[in-house]
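Let us work through a complete example step by step.
Step 1: write down the sequence.
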Amino acid sequence: MDHSKTVKRSILLCAAVLASCNWYDKTTVQNIAGPVPAGARVLFFNFGVNAPGVNFYANATKITATSSTKPDTESTIGVLYGGVAAGGFYSAIAAGQYSLTGRIADTTGGFKGRPVDTLSAAIADGKAYSFYMSGIYNAVTKIVDAFVVEDPFGTQIDYSLAYVRFVHAISNASPMTLYATIPNANDATKVDTVVVGAQLAYKSAGAFTPLAQGVYNLATRYVGDTTSAIRRTGVSFLAGRVYTVTARGDITVTTGAAAPTLDNTANR
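Step 2: predict the structure and record it as tokens.
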């Protein structure tokens, strides 16, 4: 039996089932307390500094980045640096062991389809994951780092709260902790600060931390530091939603696209 064809059929069937029930549609109200449908799902990020636009694959099967005008045609732009594939939605995938890759989308230069990362990952049935191209792209070897973290939403959620976690995707930054601050409702001269999870090293993901709905200022700090390594202001977290804040970029850069920043992506 041709295993690659079997896997591809499984992935496509899973995608069709999920599309029919809006499993990963963030515009609808999700029943996340019930059983998770068969298969798994993966959110794909291109957070590799200076990396080219890529299309994402699981083994030899294209998972994301088809042309918006021709669904059967692969995009020649792909997911650019700082982007999340599939418009920020999860992609369905059958459970199994995979080589997850971002492959160069550009047709010029003769490198189209070349994988820029090599990552083997076990994808378990009924679970959700985030795949990150990360670190700094090497233009000579055409290789960038990558890692996968599980997205454990859990089956119990308080819909009066938002849930936020931190992921560290900056390869040349020391371990950091994420802090979220919001003005004090009883005293405008004060702010309330919440530690979002624990200190994290590169390629690590923290636990989802409950936060009151509101508009927060975010900052990361190194161990023992009172000053911020990375800052972002005016980030909204809505009750009943789940978010991942990811540190990406080159910590040695202060301006431009490669400068470190805090990405906020809604998981649900």
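Step 3: interpret the result. The first helix runs from residue 3 to 21.
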